[in-house]
Amino acid sequence: MLVGIGSATMVQAEEYELLEPGKLQVATEGTYAPFSMRAPDGTLDGLEIRVMSEIAKRLDLEYVPVLIKWDSLLVGLQANQFDVISAAMDITEARQEQVTFADGWLESGGRVVIPLESDIKSAADIKGRTVGALVASNWSKIAEEKGASVKTYKAESDAMQDLVNGNIDAVITDSIAAAYAITDAKMPLKMTDDYVSHVQKGFAFKKGKPKLVAAVNEALAEMIADGTYAELTTELVGFSPAPKDPIKTIE
Fold it and tell me: Buried-most residue among 55, 75, 164, 236 (CB within 10 A)?
């Protein structure tokens, strides 16, 4: 079990390469259920919030969420506005050149969301259709590659609502996020059976923070091993989405 450094905050800041002693400042959107969202009482909740809060606790750090829009995440990280991005970011080769990812913390994949009575049966059928996707995301690129006309959104919830309203033909998004949204809001939507991608999501750090990344990796591995991760995540999505073979950190 990891042991915190307690009151020695300056030593702690150096040990973990923190921007501010004793605090783990974490960028999140707050609008992408079930990863990051508002609970009925107004507090932040979600998969990434629960997992990262537990990591901070195990490092004896105060968890400090920083709400920021998706398209500003990487810019903010490089500008030292926070220590880490917890927002549900896919680990890709291109992003690995920009940032350092902790070991993959969640496994998922992209799927096509459609109305219940849609004639779209698989991802191949979105060619020539209007498909919604989060701005600056892999989903919009995938939709374009499959020949769809893409309408981008700053919030995933807006895309789903536009689909319900009949303004677009489909949405491509994370399968976990879609399943939660459809169930929680009782939307008249479903997903095609096939996946457009299989991905792992990672917590992103500015390059040059090996001690902080190593500490997060250790805490995450312990959480998964002792069952805490499954306990925190199953309540929201019905199962533990921990990767069976996590993508490892590349410095």
Answer: 55
The one-character DSSP state at 7 is T
**Phi and psi at residue 112, in whole multiples of 5°?**
-95, 125
Q: Are residues 60 and 19 in contact, defined by beta-carbon separation less than 8 angstroms?
A: no
User: Which amino acid makes up residue 189?
Assistant: L
Q: What are phi and psi of 58, to 5 degrees?
A: -70, -20
Q: What CA–CA distances, in Å, run from 1 to 4, 103, 113, 177, 248?
A: 10, 18, 41, 31, 20
Name the DSSP letter for residue 1.
-
3-state secondary structure of 59: coil
Rounded-to-integer distance, Cα 29 and Cα 37, Å: 8
pLDDT along the chain (251 residues), means of 10: 45 77 96 92 96 97 96 97 96 95 95 97 98 92 96 93 97 90 90 92 97 97 98 89 94 76
The whole-number pLDDT of residue 6 equals 44
* Beta bridge mates, 125: none
The token duo for 183 is 């169930």
Token output for 53? 């809060």
Name the residue among 56, 32, 57 with its Cα closest to residue 45. Answer: 32
> What's the DSSP call for residue 239?
S
Cα separation, 203 vs 176, whole angstroms: 17
Provide the pLDDT for residue 137. 87
* Tally of helices (H runs) and strands (E runs) in the chain: 9, 12
Please report which residue ranges of 59-152 form alpha helices under DSSP H.
73-78, 93-98, 138-145
Query: How far is 101 from 55, CA to CA, in rounded Å?
Result: 15
User: Hey, CA dihedral for 247, 209, 7, 66, is it positive or negative?
Assistant: negative
